[in-house]
Design brief:
Two copies of one chain form a homodimer. Chain A has 324 residues and is of the alpha+beta class. The first copy, chain A, has six helices and 20 strands. In chain A, the strands form five sheets. A six-stranded mixed β-sheet of chain A has the order 6-5-18-9-10-12, with helices on one face. In chain A, strands 4-3-2-1-13 form a five-stranded antiparallel β-sheet. Chain A has a five-stranded mixed β-sheet with strand order 7-20-19-16-17, with no helix packed on it.
């Protein structure tokens, strides 16, 4: 099942069900007005949404044409946005870029940060950049949207709390990060609003590509019209289930919490990059200094994931950087 | 105007207006079903809520008796919980406690962290502590609830975005903090669910005590039945307006965002403490080692703020620590 949120002038938009080929949608307002509302009442709502989805896929309901520009993020605002950093190749490279050591517990203790979740960007929303000196970068990621999660949940029991999957562009302001992390309280100004893919998919929609808490498909990033990366998102060191156990150690989470993988990154250089910081670090290793600049107004970034048949699963994040 | 959220079995509770003497409330469901909904439509809703509040205060509406145990946090879940650390005496003491230096920019660049906001505790909810070795502590704070905040707002324009004030107990797990901050991504496991005061007050309700983005009244903390602190919350180094300018530098905030002062702390030792970490640091300075243990099951903490006449403004946070 594929879900999306249509812009309708309200803060949270209107829930719609999308046909498997991404071409048409059916309004779901009679089942649940918003995706947050559906996640709040998932057990009751899910069978009804699946019924509508089945009718749409079997062409028993005609649907209305999907225009991705009219879609919000699946959750235009969420109660929490927790982002892991589960691709260790990424952690090693970006820390090298800022002359910081990876933590000693890198392989045993997941890195996560608490992100801002009150204002999330839709798949075609501009990235507003007030100052190019901030060093604006994209980060292509996979995320899960959670149901209610009790404190203390274990990885082996985590699958039941995963409701939906989405893609994200975790926009980062690289040049603000070193000073901010030096203060000891984590990212804040250096993480502006995150953008999300048009469609949110239930795990079953991904077939065998979703297994053991990892999504085993390449995540494609196109920067200024050129593909710069296509790494396998299945190379996560910590699975989403392990991340969930980690974050739930000392507190519970409400339905609709977004949990991210961190920047998808493979040890195999031929798979390319999912953020410019990695590119710049590789350039520094090879030539002594970074060559690729960070993003500037006019730049575009596109992120999507294709299935084995080349169909876009989540639709395409397609953003442009705009200045003041 | 005083607002509160009644437990009614729903996730977000029911909005009520509370009489100035905290004794009775009137349901506000016909005006706005929840506090979040009221904050989403504040310009339209505020005059109606004030009308009801006036009737209640003038005894034109009788109201129902307030039972604080039946109240949620004013926002049982919020879209963001951003906590400053604007009392520099606190920053200096707790960093000394963990042998960490305060940042060089302590007096010019505010410290803030992004907290978990999906599960917030009501004023009388238990603090569930799975492991006493985590070093459970309270932190008594003042917070503002914001309206919509555009990116780039300046301190001089910030007053208009402050909708309500509340008190908070920013529960902290002290013994998890050093290892977590060493990883560089800020607090996560070390900050479990935060608790909030029964009542949320509009700024005008505080009279001249609310000025220039600071609340100039003592914040009282009672630990296991004994008053341990009564420091002046007006001693904030950075005002709420300055904190707001800081957090809005690179992104916007949605209505209902909670912004905290950090642990209220005065340079004058006679004013006592608002967290055990400060007490333990003072003991270490005086005697070479901490004497006061962190909280254990059965301990209680109460937090409230009295006005000049001794009336409780926000009602009392009154929590008990419970184990497994």
């Amino acid at each position: 099942m594929k879900l999306a949120t249509l812009r309708d002038g309200s803060r949270d938009g209107a829930l719609v069900v999308v046909r498997q080929d991404n071409a048409v949608y059916a309004p779901a307002r009679d089942i649940a007005p918003t995706l947050q509302n559906a996640l709040d009442r998932w057990d009751e709502v899910e069978p009804k949404l699946r019924g509508l989805s089945d009718k749409l896929n079997q062409r028993q309901v005609s649907g209305l044409p999907v225009d991705v520009r009219k879609l919000h993020a699946p959750l235009p605002r969420a109660y929490e946005w927790v982002d892991g950093s589960a691709f260790l190749n990424h952690v090693r490279l970006v820390r090298k870029a800022r002359n910081a050591e990876p933590p000693a517990t890198l392989e045993t203790d997941p890195l996560v940060y608490q992100g801002g979740s009150g204002v999330l960007l839709g798949p075609t929303d501009d990235i507003f950049l007030a100052d190019t000196a901030w060093g604006c970068d994209f980060e292509s990621e996979v995320c899960v949207l959670l149901g209610d999660v009790p404190q203390g949940v274990k990885a082996r029991d985590a699958a039941r709390h995963v409701r939906l999957l989405v893609l994200a562009n975790d926009v980062s302001l690289r040049n603000l990060i070193p000073d901010e992390l030096a203060k000891g309280f984590g990212f804040f100004q250096s993480k502006p609003a995150t953008a999300f893919s048009p469609f949110a998919l239930t795990p079953d929609e991904l077939g065998p590509a979703w297994r053991e808490g990892r999504l085993h498909l390449p995540l494609r990033t196109i920067y200024n019209g050129k593909q710069v990366g296509n790494p396998d998102a299945g190379e996560m060191h910590f699975s989403f289930f392990e991340l969930l156990q980690h974050i739930a150690k000392t507190r519970a989470f409400t339905a609709g919490t977004v949990l991210g993988s961190g920047t998808v990154s493979n040890a195999d250089r031929a798979r390319g990059i999912s953020c410019l910081a990695e590119q710049r670090t590789l350039e520094t290793i090879d030539t002594g200094k970074p060559v690729t600049p960070f993003m500037k107004p006019g730049d575009t970034v596109e992120i999507e994931m294709l299935d084995a048949e080349g169909k876009s699963l989540f639709g395409r994040i397609s953003q442009r950087v705009v200045g003041t």
